[in-house]
Specification:
alpha+beta, about 15% strand
Length: about 200
């Protein structure tokens, strides 16, 4: 039995064809290929259950077809390749600034080994944590909370908010420097400001 698995946040499947079936999917072998159902989601309407998933082709190299988790690990490279998409898809995501997030979501969903650490994803998590800690600190300095902020904002809007709420010029300069470092760290890691709000 293949476990139900939701598509992780940040993983873009808009360019892929999803399979729908009224029967539960299974790994199958087709000559020198195997087809692995991935991100299987079951929905029930009345007495009927529909399965939605992506069929990932992988070269058969002796993977254990009876153990789904083990087969995913043994086929991680082919699965990652499938979900990265071709160069045109990757280029479009790069231009939209979403490819790094997508790539790290794919790597996290399909590790090389159990517990694989993805350093770039950990760096982004640290940057995002630092960003929100600075936001909380700056809000507290002017007697506000995150709830007083818009759902998303850019650096200029954030600094204007601080000035409007009485932050002193020297404090604004200090936070400007701190948030500039956040922006530089994002750029150096192939990420963007909008991802801090995702």
């Amino acid at each position: 039995m293949i476990p139900n698995t939701e598509i992780p946040a940040g993983l873009d499947t808009s360019f892929l064809r999803e399979t729908r079936s009224m029967t539960e999917p299974a790994i199958r072998r087709e000559g020198n290929l195997i087809v692995i159902p991935v991100f299987v989601r079951a929905t029930t309407a009345g007495d009927a259950t529909e399965y939605r998933y992506f069929e990932v082709p992988a070269k058969y190299t002796g993977q254990d077809l009876t153990d789904y988790g083990k087969c995913l690990l043994q086929s991680y490279a082919a699965i990652r390749h499938f979900f990265y998409g071709d160069w045109a898809v990757q280029n479009e995501m790069i231009l939209k600034g979403t490819f790094a997030r997508h790539q790290f979501a794919v790597k996290a969903a399909f590790p090389k080994a159990p517990g694989e650490v993805i350093p770039a994803a950990e760096r982004f998590t640290a940057i995002r944590t630092r960003f929100w800690a600075l936001i909380d600190e700056a809000c507290a300095a002017v007697g506000k909370t995150r709830a007083d902020l818009p759902e998303s904002f850019n650096a200029e809007e954030m600094l204007a908010f601080a000035v409007e709420n009485g932050m002193a010029a020297d404090a604004v300069a200090d936070y400007t420097a701190k948030f500039s470092i956040i922006s530089l760290n994002l750029l150096q890691n192939g990420r963007n400001w909008d991802e801090l709000f995702a």
